[in-house]
Amino acid sequence: MKIAIINASPKTRNSNSELILSDLKHYLNDQCEIIDTKLSYNCAFNRVYNEVKDADSWLFAYPLYVDNMPSHLLKFLEWLSDNKLSTKRNIYAICNCGFYEGVQAECAINVVKFWCNKTGNVFSGGVGVGGGEAFDALKSVPVGYGPKTSIDKALGTIAQAIATKSTTSSKFVNLDYPRFLYKIGATGRWHKLIRKNGGKVKDLGRQLT
Ligand SMILES: Cc1cc2nc3c(=O)[nH]c(=O)nc-3n(C[C@H](O)[C@H](O)[C@H](O)COP(=O)(O)O)c2cc1C
Question: Which residues contact 131 (CB under 8 A, 6 or more apart)?
Answer without folding.
Answer: 98, 99, 100, 102, 147, 174, 175, 177, 182
